[in-house]
Amino acid sequence: MTDFHNIYTEPGRIARLYRELARAARGVAQEGDREAIARALRKGFDKGVLAVDSHGVEPIARQLDTAVTLCQMVDADRSMIVAILVHTLVTHEVMTLAEVEKQWGKDIAALVEGLVKVESLYRKRSGDVSDNFRKLLLTFAQDIRVIIIMIVDRLALMRAINHHPDEPFVVETAYEAGYLYAPLAHRLGLYAIKSELEDMSLKYTHRDIYTSIAHKLNQRKAARDAYIADFIAPIRKKLEQTDLRFEIKGRTKSIYSIWNKMKKQGADIDHIYDLFAIRIILDSEPAKEKSDCWNVYSVVTDMYQPNPSRLKDWLSIPKSNGYESLHITVNGPGGKWVEVQIRTRRMDAIAERGLAAHWKYKGIQAEQNLDAWMNNVRDILEAAESGPMELMKNMKMDVYDKEVFVFTPKGDLYRLPLGASVLDFAFNIHSRIGEQCIGGKVNGKNQKINYKLQSGDTVEILTSSSQKPKLDWLNFVVTSKARSKIKQTIKEEGNKMAELGRELLARRFKNRKIEMEEAKLMRVVKKMGYKMVTDFFKALSEEQLDPGAVIDSYLTIDAPATEATTVSAEEFVQQPTAKTQPSSDVLVIGNDIKGLNYRLAKCCNPIYGDPVFGFVSAEGVIKVHRDDCPNARNIRQKYPYRIIPTRWSGKLGDQLPATLRVVGQDDIGIVTNITSIINKEGSSSLRSISIDSHDGLFQGYLVVGVKDTQALNNLIKKILQVKGVKDVQRSN
Question: What is the pLDDT of residues 88-104, one digit of tens each?
Answer without folding.
Answer: 899 888 899 999 999 99
